[in-house]
Design goal:
5 strands, 5-stranded parallel sheet, about 160 residues, globular, binds 4'-phosphopantetheine, about 40% helix, 6 helices, alpha/beta
Amino acid sequence: MRRLAVYPGSFDPPTLGHLDVIERASKLFDGIVVAIGVNSAKKPLLSAEDRLQALRDSTAHLPNVEVDSFEGLLINYVQSKHALSIVRGLRATADFEYEFQMAMVNRRLASEIDTVFLMTKWEHSYLSSSIVREVATLGGDYTGLVPAPVAEVIHRALGKLRG
Ligand code: PNS
């Protein structure tokens, strides 16, 4: 049996912390589906297509990783993929409450699917998409915080924003 896990997130934008979690997870499972949750109520910095392409380019060196997007309930998507696990990254304690709630709700919806938490590298433990968005939109240097293909799409998105 192929052990498949889904790594869901907004990935707006994907950071080096996300990539670190993907690389770790790709060693633990036979296959990883990085799944971009598309929430039409939110106005993201990067379009779903940009996030999809940038994540595909950033994970091209990992043959057992695919990138996809989903709308609606995560657990329905995980079941449609016949995956056994959900992977989430965990940074400091601040993440715990939200992650605990999500894991419990998802278990209530589908008890056969477990959430597995992976810690990012120490040097990425302060990184978040919202921090990268803030640095980028305020004109700071974000290039050392995200994979190179992501930096490119952020650069383009900021260009469009500024007209
Ligand atoms: O990177 P994020 O923003 O913390 O990712 C959150 C995400 C997309 C994984 C979460 O919002 C999600 O699963 N959305 C789909 C809707 C859903 O299934 N909600 C119930 C789970 S609590």
